[in-house]
Amino acid sequence: MELLSSSALLWSPVVANNRMNRKRQASGINSYEKELQFTPQSWLNDRLQQNGQAAWLDLCCGEGNALLQYAREAAENQRQANIRLKGIDLVDQFQPIPSGIHCVRFETCPLDNWTSDTQYDLVTCVHGLHYVGDKLRVLAAILKAIGSEGIFLANLDLKSIRIAGDPQHQYIKKLFAGENISYNSRKKIISCRGPRDISFKVSYQGADDKAGPNYTGQEAVDSYYIVFCIVYLILIIYN
Q1: pLDDT score of 125
Q2: Which of 52, 67, 160, 212 lies deepest, with the highest CB count within 10 Å?
Q3: pLDDT tens for each residue of 102-118
Q4: Cα separations in angstroms, 15 against 27, 57, 132, 180, 229
Q5: Do residues 136 and 200 make contact, with C-beta atoms less than 8 angstroms apart?
Q6: d(C-alpha 138, C-alpha 122), whole Å
Q7: Which pLDDT does position 21 carry in this prediction?
């Protein structure tokens, strides 16, 4: 099996898949509300009421429709001045930002080397991690970007994180439990309240873009790792 580097993975037709999250709104039939069982607008409006401001970071945001839906609602209610909305995606296929909307910003960049100096009240990644190479490095960066009262939600398939010597994913599950990071194995949703500064203590080996379909039915990318110290892996799994 040939593993791809992060730079080579960007050219994979699997990563270029535009069917997963290009069109989703924040709420409605084809929406984040349906995928995550969570309504972004309600959470952000609550943050706005309690703190006087609200910020949402949407990773792998597709066309940015979810952010724009909330931005339009904020504009109608004259709340834009206290809202920051940022969307990041690998490709520049964002919808045009309507005139009169000034709380939204889009950025084109791969996530593998992404970091943030800003924290957010809400961080989402809907079906985006399926196509990321170094998923654990990206997760570590995301967890730092959550505000002190913020929340993170994303779709994540643990089967796509391949750590040598740990086919049952006990290493990741126990690290998540120790950091109070929730993972719903049935719905494949990871969530966390408040920031975490976590080290996974692994070495990324590369990505397999020929792993085949995951639970969504779409082809996805598997990420391969080795733990820095095999003794550490054993202690985590069996203690």
Answers
A1: 97
A2: 67
A3: 999 999 999 988 999 99
A4: 25, 21, 8, 30, 31
A5: yes
A6: 16
A7: 62
Contacts of 178 (CB under 8 A, 6+ apart): none
Q: Angle formed by the axes of helices 230-238 and 170-178, to 10°?
A: 70
Cα-Cα end-to-end distance for the chain: 32
Burial of 26 (0-12, 13-18, 19+ CB in 10 A): buried
pLDDT at 28: 87
Can you tell me which residue has the tokens 């994979």? 12
pLDDT in tens, 11-56: 898 987 656 567 889 988 889 999 999 999 999 999 999 999 999 9
Tokens of 190: 């990871």
Question: According to DSSP H, which parts of the chain are helical?
Answer: 6-9, 32-36, 40-51, 65-76, 135-144, 170-178, 230-238
CATH class belonging to 6-238: alpha beta
Structure tokens at 157: 């398939």
Residues 171-185 have a mean pLDDT of 94
Rounded CA-CA distance 221/202 in Å is 18
Pull the structure tokens for residue 175: 């690290």
DSSP string, 125-182: ESS-GGG-SSHHHHHHHHHHTEEEEEEEEEE--GGGEEETT-TT-HHHHHHHHHTT-E
**pLDDT at res. 71:** 96
